[in-house]
Design goal:
Strand content: 35-45%
Structural class: alpha/beta
CATH superfamily: D-tyrosyl-tRNA(Tyr) deacylase
Shape: globular
Largest sheet: 6 strands, mixed
Helix content: 10-25%
Order of helices and strands: EEEHEEHEHEE
Length: 152
């Protein structure tokens, strides 16, 4: 499982020109679920996401996490994070989880975030939809987090 974290001043998701959700500051997370990922991967990654210290403190150092600053998170499912680009010029997505598994683990990740952050702070895109994601990257700061199984 891969989470691409982007520290944002604002972000929103639309589907067919309709606003699905938005945040004013915090993290935009693009979440990719891989074959054989489990609940444990989602739990691990959710904890890493909310505890990652990528927000500036009063001295301008990246010492604060979402748990510290009270900002929101917007999570968008993105299977293309598991693209295999080793051969040719057309990416292969065979390592991405099937839609049923991916949706289950996407929702599980969201539930874990909500447990850690509390109500009202977790926002999401629309699983499986063609989405337009707009963001104002803050920094820019972009971090790739991987579940433990990605390192084995």
């Amino acid at each position: 499982m891969i989470a691409l974290l982007q520290r944002v001043a604002e972000a929103n998701v639309t589907v067919e020109s309709e606003l699905v959700d938005s945040i004013r500051g915090g993290l935009l997370v693009l979440l990719g679920v891989k074959q054989f990922d489990t609940d444990n991967d989602a739990m691990y990654l959710a904890a890493k996401t909310v505890n990652h210290r990528i927000f500036q403190d009063d001295e301008g150092k990246m010492n604060l996490s979402l748990l510290d600053n009270g900002q929101d998170i917007l999570v968008v499912s993105q299977f293309t994070l598991h693209a295999d680009t080793r051969h040719g010029n057309r990416p292969s997505f065979t390592e991405a989880a099937d839609p049923k598994t991916a949706e289950y683990l996407y929702e599980y990740y969201l539930q874990e975030l909500q447990k850690l952050l509390g109500p009202g702070r977790v926002h999401k895109g629309e699983f499986g939809a063609m989405m337009k994601v707009k963001l104002v990257n803050d920094g820019p700061v972009t971090i790739i987090l991987k579940s433990k199984s990605e390192y084995q």
